[in-house]
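Task 17 of the worksheet. Students: predict the tertiary structure of the chain below and write it out as structure tokens. Keep your answer in the requested format; marks are given for formatting as well as content.
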Amino acid sequence: MTDTPYVLRADDDGVTTLTLNRPQARNALSQGMLEALRAAVADIAADASVQVLIVAGSGPAFCAGHDLKELRAGNYDPGYVDSLFAACAEVMQTIVHLPKPVIARVHGVATAAGAQLVASADLAFAADDARFATPGVNIGLFCSTPMVALSRNLTRKHAMQMLLSGDLIDAETAFRFGLINEVVPAAELEQRTLAFARQIASKSPLTLAIGKEAFYRQAELSLADAYTYTSQVMAKNLQAEDAKEGIDAFLSKRPPVWCGR
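Model answer:
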């Protein structure tokens, strides 16, 4: 595996797909995988040609969480374990802070940190045979870091149901819990995800970046502070060339031409 990239990148007219590429390990998040994913997302953040990111998995699964074999081989060394979980937390926050929408394209299973990755994405589309779980409780290791992303996307009781039971849930249940946006026939998953990504990519990249940042920031504020903050964001957004172009295009009944400023 030393010559095989952990993450594959494919670019398609403003939409980039990063594919986790350890199929024999169910795309487990080893140290190497986490570093490759972090570097790939950082490259995308600096790439003006990319407007939407899709995260997918190769082989039979989306992502089976942390690499338990690697953890055991490292003899659970505290320094190594600390660095591993810090790296995972950094990757999840990098995805949230990326100034471009991120869509998880889920097939097979997404468990533990794999479910965390799904929850950390802005949107998630799943095959109708996909399954999700935070099964750490079953092996004596509570899914505490996945809990951060789950508790910010699911209702508290649904998040606790997953965390306390460790049970696999199907795609329809994941949709009902709020973990994913759509359940798609497996054969149509790639096409549907790409179509939605292209729809988003047709918007002003500046507006998308402003909106994504504001969405996550206001969610952590009190109601009054959230309105104060978002009012300031809208006032500043209105001064952007893309906002003025968008309003002119709407009033003139023509398609807008974005400049990203």
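Marker's comment: The two ends are 43 Å apart (CA to CA). The longest helix spans residues 78-97.
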